[in-house]
Amino acid sequence: MTLRSLPLLLAGLLVASAAHASQADHVHAGDAWIRVMPASLPAGGYVTLRNDGDEPAVLDGASSAAYGSAMLHESSTDTGMGRMRMVDRLTIPAHGKVALAPGGYHFMLMDAARPVQPGQTVQVTLHFADGSTLATDFLAKPANAL
Length: 146
Known about the structure:
Helix content: 10-25%
Radius of gyration: 19 Å
Structural class: mainly beta
Low-confidence stretches: none
C-alpha cells in the first residue's frame, strides 16, 4: 500500500463503520429515574431519550435484572378517566427527543427481585428494533417524587 492510498482507505473505513452504527449508538438517555412504590406494587420508570442520528430510533422494550419484567406503557386521560395501555414500540425521531414522564409514556417495572430503596441505582437495558441495546442507570426515588 502506498502512502497516497492511506487517506482513501481511512475514508472508506469511516463510511463503512457509520453505515453499520446501531440505533442505540445514536440515542442518549438522561434524567433516568424510578418511582418506587410501597410493598410489591409496580414501579414507574422515566427517562428522556435524545436521538442524535439521521434516522429515527425505535424503542421496543426494556429489561432489568432488578425486575422480573419491564413493559412500555402510556398513561392518558379520557373524559376525566385515567387510562393506561401497553405500547409495543416508541419512535424517537431523528435529531429529536422523547420524554418518558409521569402522565405519559413510562416503563412499568414489575416483580422486583428484592426491594428497591430510594437512593439506589438500578440498571435498565433499553432495547431497540434493530437488536441494539443501551444500558441506562435509573435513580430510585420515593413514591411522592415528581
